[in-house]
Design goal:
about 450 residues; alpha+beta; Aminopeptidase; OB fold (Dihydrolipoamide Acetyltransferase, E2P); 3 domains; four-stranded antiparallel beta sheet; 11 helices; 21 strands; about 25% helix; about 25% strand; disordered N terminus; binds zinc ion
């Protein structure tokens, strides 16, 4: 929320903040000839706003226009709202206590010297065809000491957005300016990726078998090899996913906020919606966190397509995380914090037919609002889907033919206060028939 004060001469920090809010986006829009700023009047309005506005953070420390002395501190809040890190938390300690000399990293039988980047190759030992299939592992080892952050994508082989996110982050990092190391695996499940499928060739979901078993099923063996060879080298992990089965997700972090290290990691992303939930057993998020490696899942977009807006959103969040973890010095601004949803629920179709959405990802809805319609293709009868909750659309099915019971809209539910106890979470799940939607829990 911004408060305008046309009588006040703004200080430098206020001008800088306003630039990113008003003038920067307007200039970018003009350069792209988009409709975001589609008149020259708005262009000048942005200049006027830039010169005259004072910023007030919604719900946070208010900056009264008459009190210039507090403006710099509050503007800094946009950048440093999660720092300094709480050193009682192990992840924060790993970040803040890193000093001395950077060390050479040994991964996949390869030494990676500080200040260098390497492209390695990993393959599980047991494969279906008996032919080794390798997948790239990108490593950047910084000149300065710090934590090792891992990025993994395409554990489900049809989820493409995360692949592009890992590529963009890793190829944009200068090892000379990095503290710590980043390990990026763009395509973890190369067997599924080659088939364009969520599943392994035996229909198993790899993300239900971590940390794996060297003597178990094919999925368990692949999971074990990956966990042992790569994941054990991480201090923190971000696992990238999309919705599944023609469903798409608003870019969001899924995190177990009862774990202080996971909270540290989650807050580091800046402005991204957070959905609190416990990871399912067998997921990489669950196994890594149990092994002492704080992990969050980032969900963005849907399967089988490369969605540039979602990719950019994810890349921006990860880059801000690198900054808040102290791994990259560059400061970045990214607007107001997004809300944390402690409850969410799927709205299911009661009738079969063709779904047509009336809301979009990110829409704010009130109780009773129309979410979409389902039309019976035989008799053209139309039924309405209305929201049983006030909240926000954080996931939804693409327009398609649906059966009765199909999960259509995922509503992040507004709650009055942040309660992260099991009782409330479980109650929310029970109210939603267990809350489980196949393929939607990573
Ligand atoms: Zn997934």
């Amino acid at each position: 929320m911004f408060r305008f004060n046309f009588l006040q001469i703004p200080d430098w920090v206020t001008v800088k903040t306003c630039y990113f809010r008003y003038f920067g986006p307007c200039m970018n829009a003009l350069h792209r000839q988009s409709h975001t700023c589609d008149s020259i009047c708005q262009y000048f309005a942005a200049i006027a706003a830039l010169l005259t506005c004072s910023v007030t953070l919604a719900g946070n420390t208010a900056i009264e226009p008459t009190d210039n002395s507090e403006a710099p501190a509050a503007a800094e809040q946009l950048i440093d709202s999660v720092t300094p890190l709480d050193e009682s938390v192990p992840l924060a300690k790993a970040v803040t206590s890193a000093d001395g000399q950077a060390k050479s990293m040994r991964l996949l039988d390869t030494d990676i010297a500080p200040g260098t980047a390497r492209r390695l190759s990993w393959s599980a030992t047991q494969l279906f065809e008996g032919v080794p299939v390798s997948t790239p592992v990108l490593v950047v080892n910084g000149t300065h000491p710090g934590p090792t952050l891992c990025l993994t994508a395409a554990i489900h082989g049809d989820e493409l957005n995360g692949i592009e996110m890992v590529q963009r982050v890793l190829h944009d990092i200068d090892p000379q300016k990095l503290s710590g190391a980043i390990i990026g695996v763009p395509i973890v499940n190369v067997q599924s990726f080659r088939r364009g499928s969520r599943y392994l060739p035996d229909r198993r979901d790899l993300n239900r078998y971590f940390p794996g078993n060297p003597n178990g099923s094919a999925a368990a063996r692949i999971a074990h090899a990956f966990f042992t060879d790569i994941i054990t080298h991480c201090d923190a992990l971000v696992d990238l996913h999309t919705g599944s089965f023609e469903r798409t997700n608003l870019p969001q972090i899924r995190a177990d906020l009862r774990n202080p290290d996971v909270v540290t990691l989650t807050l580091g992303f800046g402005s991204m919606v957070v959905l609190h939930n416990k990871p399912a057993a067998g997921t990489l998020r669950h196994a890594a966190t149990m092994a002492g490696i704080p992990t969050v899942t980032v969900e963005a977009g849907g399967p089988s397509q490369l969605e540039l807006a979602e990719v950019k959103h994810g890349v921006k969040g990860i880059k801000i995380l690198l900054t808040t973890l102290g791994m990259v010095k560059k400061r970045r601004l990214w607007g107001d914090p997004e809300p944390v949803y402690y409850r969410s629920s799927w709205v299911r179709a009661d009738n079969g037919g063709i779904l047509l959405a009336h809301v979009s990802l990110g829409s704010t809805v009130r109780k009773g609002d129309l979410l979409g319609t389902i039309t019976d293709p035989m008799n053209n009868a139309r039924t309405e889907l209305r929201s049983p909750y006030a909240g926000r659309i954080i996931g939804m099915a693409r327009n398609q033919v649906v059966m009765p019971g199909f999960a259509t809209f995922h509503v992040g539910i507004q709650t009055d206060r942040a309660v992260v106890d099991d009782m409330q979470i479980d109650a929310a799940r029970i109210s939603n028939e267990g809350g489980y939607v196949d393929g939607m829990s990573e």
